[in-house]
Amino acid sequence: MANASDIRDPSINELRQNLRKLLRKELAPRVEAQEESGELDHAALKTMGKLGLAAPMLSEPYGMGDLMAQVVVAEEMGYVCSGFGLSELASVCLFGSNVDRQGTPDQKERYLPGIASGEKIGCWALTEPSAGSDAVSIKTRCVREGGHYVVSGSKTFITNAPIADYFMILAREFDRDGKPLGGDANGFAGGTTLIVEKGAAGLRTGQPFHKLGHLSSPTGEVFLDNVKVPMTQVLGQPGAAFLGMKTSLDVERAIFGGLGVGVMEFCLHAVVKYASQRKQFGVSLLEHQMIQEKIADMSSKLDITRSYLYSVIRSIADGRSVNKEAAVAKYLGAKYCMEVASDAVQCLGGYGYMREYQVERCLRDAKLFEIGGGTSEIQKMIIAKQTIKGLMEARA
């Protein structure tokens, strides 16, 4: 089985071991309570940040500038509680890394210390009630008036929205005559990203949603009613947000894949531990061929997912385009995570259906990987289009 030492980087291996000890000591005992309350374990997040374990993907001095280290962080969080990991990565990977990559020096200095330390929570508000997979069809609009923008609209299914300190809002820009920037209300030109802080006049959030899984990661709505946002709060180039969104999503899909790897590893360990302690028909479950077959399938899917994910991360770190590869990693990772979690519940039988053994939580959490960050169907569309394009170009 692959582990941090396979990356051949002692610093990442040390990070894994330190984070593993911390999460299994500080977070694991409180997971069920946090799942019941629907609250993020902010204390555990701040402890991670204090020790420099929360945001290694951010550039120095806020992090290590290491994407692989962030995947390792995702794996370890996924093993203990994917809900906790979802909120942590939404803050660091979606909000923090975008500020790190596109922000001005002042924006980085203002927002990244709090994100890296875990003291502050960020979110990326993209999805809308009528715009999910078709992200460029968003209706939230912004109009420039003097030295600020006026933003109105609503967002939904936003991870961390109910608890966020910082909101990254993607809006379509219009001029004062009501014409869309770029001339097309559904085109890739005209998207502008703005950073809005909690407490801004006209900004409010809804109550946390009741969900199937990831219960300790609050998800909700964001409402913007003529919110005035200074020009200094524009992230990146005005009008270019949709063009940069694809790169951001590729990184998100790869990093968040680490959560699924962690979930699969937990399920595999749970099955082996349970089967080693239980007997059926006079022999250990581990000696039953059908259980061994399940373990072999689970282990293979875990290793395949992790190995491919690591290769995608290396490509991103090298500056290569990974639109197809990130989609493959997300599609297969989500598929295998669902299968592994389902097999874990099946192997544990009645006990697997009970909350005490936690694999039922893994199965509920795994479903999100087929939906969030682009559905599995969208990933297959990307894979097909990129495959066709590559083959056609090769034949030209």
Shape: globular
Q: Any idea what the CATH architecture of the largest domain is?
A: Up-down Bundle
Q: Please identify the structural class as seen in this structure.
A: alpha+beta
**CATH class membership of the largest domain:** Mainly Alpha
Would you identify the regions where 5 or more consecutive residues have pLDDT less than 50? 1-7
Count of domain modules: 3
N-to-C series of helices and strands? HHHHHHEEEEEEEEHEEHHHH
Gap between N and C termini, in Å?
A: 41 Å
**Tally of contiguous helical segments:** 11
In CATH terms, what is the fold-level topology of the largest domain? Butyryl-CoA Dehydrogenase, subunit A, domain 3
The residue-averaged pLDDT reads 93
Helical percentage: 40-55%
Query: What's the main sheet like?
Result: 8 strands, mixed
The count of strands amounts to 10
Report on this structure.
- The chain is an alpha+beta fold and 396 residues long.
- The chain has helices at 10-27, 31-37, 42-50, 67-80, 82-102, 105-117, 241-277, 289-317, 323-348, 359-366, 376-395; strands spanning 122-125, 141-145, 148-159, 166-174, 191-197, 203-205, 219-230, 234-235, 279-280, 283-284.
- The protein has three domains: 4-120, Butyryl-Coa Dehydrogenase, subunit A, domain 1; 124-239, Beta Barrel (Butyryl-CoA Dehydrogenase, subunit A, domain 2); 243-395, Butyryl-CoA Dehydrogenase, subunit A, domain 3, CATH 1.20.140.
- Strands 1, 2, 3, 4, 5, 6, 7 and 8 form an eight-stranded mixed sheet that branches. A two-stranded antiparallel sheet has the order 9-10.
